[in-house]
Amino acid sequence: MEVEDDHRRKELLVLVVIVVLASLSLVSLLVAFSYYCYISNKVSKRLKIRKRVDLEDEGSFANVEKNSTEKGLQVFTFKQLYSATGGCSKSNVIGHGSFGCVYRGVLNDGRKVAIKLMDQAGKQGEEEFKVEVDVLSRLHSPYLLALLGYCSDNNHKVLVYEFMVNGGLQEHLYPVRRSNSVSVKLDWETRLRVSLEAAKGLEYLHDHVSPPVIHRDFKSSNVLLDKDLHAKVADFGLAKIGSDKAGGHVSTRVLGTQGYVAPEYALTGHLTTKSDVYSYGVVLLELLTGRVPVDIKRAPGEASLVSWALPRLTDREGVMHIMDPALEGQYSMKDVVQVAAIAAMCVQPEADYRPLMVDVVQSLVPLVRSYRTTSKIGSSSSSSASKSPTAHDKASSRD
User: Fold this and answer.
1) SS3 track for 29-94
2) Which residues form the domain of 154?
3) Phi, psi of 393 (to 5 degrees)
4) Where is the composition biased (Basic and acidic residues) (predicted)?
5) b/e for 6-15, b at 16 or more Cβ within 10 A?
């Protein structure tokens, strides 16, 4: 009997072990199967999200194309634009935009245009192309360069703008020898008007659009001049939609041009409309001084235009020390001090201390109006009197 009991106990023990091992195996299989289902589901979701994003990107540009066509933008073929630029002839190159060469062109209907051709395919160029078409198809202001049409033909991405005869402000402030373009001497009255018109361009982006548009690459080469030297803001390839909250910011990769980028944006990537205000202040300093924003050939302490000029903008003697010698005898001390004060506020290191563009515009309007009035008075008197600083000081004191 005892032998039978031992045998039964052993059989029972073996059976229990087998059941336990089978249960563990089953649990392991269930766990493995569950994990497999979890991973498969996660991968599937990611693929679906990626596919949806890709479709949204395609759809977003499809919407851009639809909206832009509805708003009067013409869609060109590459063949049309290639012909308009004389086969992208080097003799027709008039500049470089944020992602390619800009050519002078003539369309079949005789219109003179500026044609910007993306010279390197890639995600950044594609994005800039989409942004510029999207932004400019929705913005309409006499102070912004008008986009007339575009071409998105296979790998060819081309933008077609109205033609600005006198090109960029930069090339007239700093004429380059051996350049094909003819520079125009910008007198004080013209510089004052250009500063106001450029300010109105940024004011439109910041205050007349909701949410605001931040240019992000405002500089003197992106202020273009027509045949009468009126200014328009151009090149929106790096533009960014800003925060619709008062004092809010958007976080983004730091892009822009050295010497024009606001310090807080450069340090943190936090972009606001005040970042454009800083860039505008740098351009205003260029108009005052005739100096480039960064010049390493200058004496120690003078390489950075902002660092060199800012301490001198708050007193009369300091302001006179930084003025462009080419402007001598064309301005009144009163007006220069006011413009210098505006520039000083715009390039403040702390963004909160900078003015809004609407405030800048309101400050410049009476100065430009004063010069228009003075010019009319001067035109009816002798030319020597109209150009005399003393005569203009008297006219300014009457306003």
Assistant:
1) HHHHHHHHHHHHHHHHHHHHHHHHHHHHHHHHHHHHHHHHHHCCCEECCHHHHHHHCCCCCHHHEE
2) 74-162
3) -60, -40
4) 390-399
5) eeeeeeeeee
Pair (284, 250) in one structural domain: yes
CA-nearest of 395, 382, 290 to 333 is 395
CA distances to 49, 197, 250, 314, 340 from 330, in Å = 63, 20, 42, 21, 16
**Catalytic residue IDs:** 217
Residue 330 has what pLDDT?
92
The distance from CA 207 to its chain's CA centroid, rounded to whole angstroms, is 16
CA-based end-to-end distance of the chain: 129
d(CA 30, CA 20) in angstroms, rounded, equals 15
Averages of pLDDT over each 10 residues, the chain, 399 residues:
66 72 75 71 52 40 50 86 91 78 92 86 69 86 94 87 94 72 86 98 95 94 96 92 79 90 94 97 97 93 95 91 93 94 97 96 93 58 40 41
pTM, two decimals, is: 0.76
> Token match 């001049």: residue?
225
What tokens were used for 255? Answer: 């892009």
Which two tokens mark 215? 């240019």
Whether residue 156 is contained in a domain is answered as yes
Q: Residue 268 falls within a domain, yes or no?
A: yes
Together in a domain, 134 and 275:
no
Tell me how far apart the alpha carbons of residues 151 and 156 are, in angstroms, rounded to a whole number.
7
Q: What would the two tokens of residue 111 be?
A: 């219109």
Q: Is 112 annotated as a binding residue?
A: no
Same domain membership, residue 196 and residue 97: no
User: What is the reported pLDDT for 389?
Assistant: 44
pLDDT at 95: 82
d(CA 306, CA 295): 11
